[in-house]
């Protein structure tokens, strides 16, 4: 048989073309594989969801926990409502049992005895509102108590009376500009660097501190002290002299509170997630002028030959796995029944590559229309349309889920990202009650001055949905606000959530003119900073981070200190949990 085959080949006049044909066949096979999608296995999550019914929101988890902190505030003072809103969330997330007392509506003689608590947080700039009870408070500190003055103090009679016990040598009537903050390296992750504050003003009291006072944060130019700690007798005093009480600075205030006791422990998430919005999707429209300028290729070729390979190099270098959220089409029809996208090539190809990378595919929308009903007014800010009713929203989500299962049969999405972070209360209720596939919503952490974004806190909602807000976005080239936000959330929740859009390079407002190399450089600069500030931070997908948030949300911790040991007691612990632990006296051994 072998001899006959050789004889046939010798007699075949076109035998020299066989090699060329074989090459063409191989190329055809490669192209077929490319067009048909890349082989992949379903992503094996390192941490997955707990059942909805087995997870408690943080507010429920805190029922029955010992009350260790007294929060004193004066609702009549300017700025107190803003700072109290932040501290209510900070102390809840740190799982600190707290009793809040408004001195505006409570007689000073009726204030609780300070000896009932481990710590006191004072949220008032004019300390005269406490009257002689301020002296009682400082005497309690002298005997071993701990107090945080979280608002920049006014220079008043009572402030001057206790200023030496706060670590203040002298003070002036003027206020200094808080244009930036430089936390010390032993105070916060990412410390030792300057972070710019948005819209700075003269918000920090001009003070000179005693030599026995420890400064943990200053401004970057003139070194105005912003956070300091002072030992008063056998107790501690911490002062925040920042005068800015936005959500973006929660990490600073949480770190300040952690200075109060010999040892402080609180639950954190420990996760970093990187979202690709509108991915996979049809090739987006938009102005490809700058892509043609820089690469002399079409938008589609740019994504497959430049953008995606560059992302994969960064993913490998920094050990990250992307979570894409799918758009089936970019039509704006919210009235007619959903129709199936006929062109699946882009979805199969990029979706398979994403999953093969160990990433995840979630949901962004059947189309790019936010889940809102006719009662939502976009106020000429967006050209989006509303959905006529709840059934239309459910039908659109069902179609998207079915479409994803068709093009990527080995994936099982659970994460929903609202288009432009817009999701109405009615749309949110539909997702929580009628679309059980959705387990996590990843919207935004910050407000934008309108009532359109779905603004979230990290945690679990009462309906079991995991709230997973995104903190930073894009290439962040020159965006000092986002770097400040990222640093604070490393120290508040030990988390980083970032997102970008493939079509950022088609929009001048999102960096198209600067080009991909600049955008990519800004993104890598963030990855370098994150790796240096938190080298052990877990790189996760959206589902894995949601599972971590579930465990974090219900985890409680109490800390007992003796001269020789610290004892941490965990509540609602399930399989794993992560804590920040700060030792202010002593050194952990082991």
Q: What's the topology here?
A:
Elements: H1 2-11, H2 18-36, H3 58-61, E1 69-73, H4 80-93, E2 98-102, E3 119-123, H5 133-142, E4 146-149, H6 157-162, E5 168-177, E6 180-183, E7 195-196, E8 202-209, E9 213-218, E10 225-232, E11 235-240, H7 250-257, E12 263-268, E13 271-276, H8 289-295, H9 299-318, E14 322-327, H10 345-356, E15 360-365, H11 390-407, E16 415-416, H12 425-434, E17 440-441, E18 459-460, E19 466-467, E20 472-473, H13 480-492, E21 495-500, H14 516-533, E22 539-540, H15 542-554, E23 556-561, E24 566-571, E25 578-583
Parallel strand pairs: 1-2, 1-3, 3-4, 4-11, 13-14, 13-21, 13-22, 14-15, 16-17, 17-19, 20-21
Antiparallel strand pairs: 5-8, 6-7, 6-9, 9-10, 10-11, 12-25, 18-19, 23-24
Helix pairs in contact: 7-13, 9-14
Description of the structure:
The protein is of the alpha/beta class and 590 residues long. It is 31% helix and 21% strand. The protein is built from 15 helices and 25 strands. A 9-stranded mixed sheet has the order 2-1-3-4-11-10-9-6-7, sandwiched between helices. Strands 13, 14, 15, 20, 21 and 22 form a 6-stranded parallel sheet that branches. Strands 16-17-19-18 form a 4-stranded mixed sheet, covered by helices on one side. A hairpin with a 2-residue loop joins strand 10 (225-232) and strand 11. It is elongated. The chain starts with a helix and ends in a 7-residue tail after the last strand. Residues 26-35 have low confidence and may be disordered.
